[in-house]
Amino acid sequence: MKKTYKISREPEILKPDLCVIGAGSAGLSVASIAASFGASVVLVEKHRMGGECLNVGCVPSKALLAAAHRAQRVRDAARLGIGTGEGPVIDFGRVRRHVRDVVSAIAPMDSAERYRAMGVQVIKAEASFTDARTVAADGKVIKARRFVVASGSRPAIPTIPGLDQVPYLTNDTIFDLEERPEHLIVIGGGAVGVELAQAYRRLGSEVTIVEAGERLLGREDPEMAAVIARALRREGAVLKLGLSVERVEPRDDGRVAVVLAGGERAIEGSHLLVAAGRQATLEGLNLKAAGIRADSTGILVGRNLKTSNRKVYAIGDCVGGEETSGRFTHVANHQAGLVIRNALFGLPATPSEAIPRVVYTDPELAAVGLDEEAARAAGRPFRILRWAFADNDRARAEGTTQGHVKAIVTPRGRILGCTIVGPGAGELIMPWVMAVSRGLKASDLAGLVYPYPTLSEATRSAAVEFLKPATQNPWLRRLIGLVRRLG
Ligand SMILES: Cc1cc2nc3c(=O)[nH]c(=O)nc-3n(C[C@H](O)[C@H](O)[C@H](O)COP(=O)(O)OP(=O)(O)OC[C@H]3O[C@@H](n4cnc5c(N)ncnc54)[C@H](O)[C@@H]3O)c2cc1C
Ligand SMILES: NC(=O)c1ccc[n+]([C@@H]2O[C@H](COP(=O)([O-])OP(=O)(O)OC[C@H]3O[C@@H](n4cnc5c(N)ncnc54)[C@H](O)[C@@H]3O)[C@@H](O)[C@H]2O)c1
C-alpha cells in the first residue's frame, strides 16, 4: 500500500517595522507616510480599501450633496432674475452615477496596487491578535516592531422595537439606492442625518428627521445649529425634535411607520435611514489576547495614542474614551502623522487643540476651538465677536446672506474659538484654525488685507469688532487732537 505523508507547512512569519490593521483614512495615512520614510509596512484590510470615507462616507455624501445643492441653485435662480421654467429636472439615475463616478475616480489613490507600488505589503484578510506581540492574517504570522489598529467604526443601531422587522438603510447602503425615496424618514439629527436629509430633500424627496435631543446637531453651538434647522424647515423638511421613537412597524404596502412617544401621530415613509451615531469596529481583532483595553466607546488610548499595550497604537474612528477629538477623516490623518512621529522617530505625539469640523449643509457650519457654552464652562472672562453675512457685500451680491461668524476671544483678544454658519463656512474657518492653533489675537486677523469683495471679509469684520471699543478711548482721541495740532 502506498504511504501518504501529511505536509505541515510552517506559517510565513513577517517582521515589519509596522503592521497596520485597517485600510481606511487612518490606516492608509500611516502606511503611506511610513513607507515614504523607508520603513517596512504590512497593511491588513478585510473589506474595502479606502474604508468608510471613500466608499460610504465623506466622498459619496459630498458628491450627493453637490448634486442636491446644484438643484437648489436652479430653484433659487429666479431670485436673481434667471428663469428656469418648472425648476430642476432631477434624473436620480444620473445623480447616482455621478456619486459612483466620483468614488471610482478617487479609488485608485487608495488601491492595494498603489500601496504595493509604494513598497507596502498589503494583505486582504481579517487581522487578529494572537498574543501581545503577534497578529495573524491570511495564514501569516506578523511580528511587527509596532502595531497600529485603525479598524474604524460602523453605524450604531439603537434598540427600537420593530426595527429588525423592517428594511432600513444606513450610510452603508443608502448610496446604493436605485430610486429616489418618495419619503425618507431619518432617525438621528447629527451630521450624517442632517447632511443626507438636506441632500434628499433638495433632490425632491419628502424628508422627516426624528431627533431624540431637543435640537439638531447637538454638539454644535445651539445658536448656530438653529440656522441650519431653519434652512431645512424653509426647504420643506419636517423636524420632529425632542421625541423618541417608541416603535417601528411595517405597513402592508411596503411602507414603514415610525411611532413616536407622547401620542404624536405615526409618521409613514417609503424609506427609513438610521443615522443614530457610530460604534467602533472591534470584533475579530481579539484585543484581549494582546492586553488592549477597550470599552463601549472604542479602544482606550493614553499618551502618544498608545493603547494599554505599549507596542500598539490606535487611531481613527476605532478610538473611544475621552481622548477622541471626533470621528473625522482629518482627525484620522492627523493622528496618523502623530503615530509616525512617535513610532519611527521616538518624538512625543501631542494632538492639536485646533481640530476643525464642518457640516456640509447649505449653509455650511464650521467650528474650531471653544464655543460659547465651552467658554462659559471654563469659567474665565471672554468676549463674543459677531459678523453677519447679511452685512458682507459679496454674500449680498450672491444672494447667500444666511448665517454669521461668531468668535470667542479673551478680554485681551486672544482667539479661543470660532463657529461660522454661512456660505463656504468650511473654507472660511481656516484662518481661525490657524489663530487657535498659533495663539493669535483678533488684531492679527484684523490687520491682514482681504480682497474685496470676498466672503473672507466677514473674518476681518468680526475681528475688527474687538478693536471697536478703542475708537471711544479718550487717550486715543486726545492723541488725534495732538497730531492735528502738529499739522
Ligand atoms: C455619511 C458619512 C459622511 C462623512 N463625512 C465626513 C466628512 O465630510 N469629513 C470628515 O472628516 N469625516 C466624515 N465622515 C467620517 C469619516 O468617514 C471617518 O471619520 C473616517 O472614515 C474614519 O476612518 P478610519 O480609517 O478610522 O476608519 P474606516 O474608514 O472605517 O476604516 C477602517 C477599516 O478597517 C477595516 N478593518 C476593521 N477590522 C479589521 C480587521 N480585524 N482586520 C482587517 N481590517 C479590518 C475595515 O474593513 C475598514 O476598511 C463621514 C462619515 C459618514 C458615515
Ligand atoms: N461633515 C462631516 O465631517 C461628517 C459628516 C457625517 C458624519 N461625520 C462623522 O460621523 C459621526 C457620526 O455621525 P452621526 O450623525 O451618525 O452621529 P452623531 O452622534 O453625531 O448624531 C446622532 C444623533 O442621533 C440621535 N439619536 C440617537 N438615537 C436616537 C433615536 N433612537 N431616536 C432619535 N434620535 C436618536 C442622537 O441624539 C444624535 O443627535 C459624526 O460624529 C462625525 O464625526 C462627519
From TrEMBL:
The keyword Plastid does not apply. Residues 355-462 form the Pyridine nucleotide-disulphide oxidoreductase dimerisation domain. One of its GO terms (molecular function) is oxidoreductase activity, acting on a sulfur group of donors, NAD(P) as acceptor. Keywords: Disulfide bond, FAD, Flavoprotein, Membrane, NAD, NADP, Nucleotide-binding, Oxidoreductase, Pyruvate, Redox-active center, Transmembrane, Transmembrane helix. InterPro entries: FAD/NAD-bd_sf (IPR036188), FAD/NAD-binding_dom (IPR023753), FAD/NAD-linked_Rdtase_dimer_sf (IPR016156), Pyr_nuc-diS_OxRdtase (IPR001100), Pyr_nucl-diS_OxRdtase_dimer (IPR004099), Pyr_OxRdtase_I_AS (IPR012999). Gene3D superfamilies: 3.30.390.30, FAD/NAD(P)-binding domain. Its cofactor is FAD. Disulfide bonds join 53-58. Pfam families: Pyr_redox_2, Pyr_redox_dim. NAD(+) binds at residues 188-195, 211, 277. FAD binds at residues 62, 317. Residues 17-336 form the FAD/NAD(P)-binding domain. Coiled coil: none annotated. It comes from the Bacteria. Binds 1 FAD per subunit. The chain crosses the membrane at residues 20-44. Belongs to the class-I pyridine nucleotide-disulfide oxidoreductase family. This is Pyruvate/2-oxoglutarate dehydrogenase complex dihydrolipoamide dehydrogenase (E3) component. It comes from Microvirga subterranea.
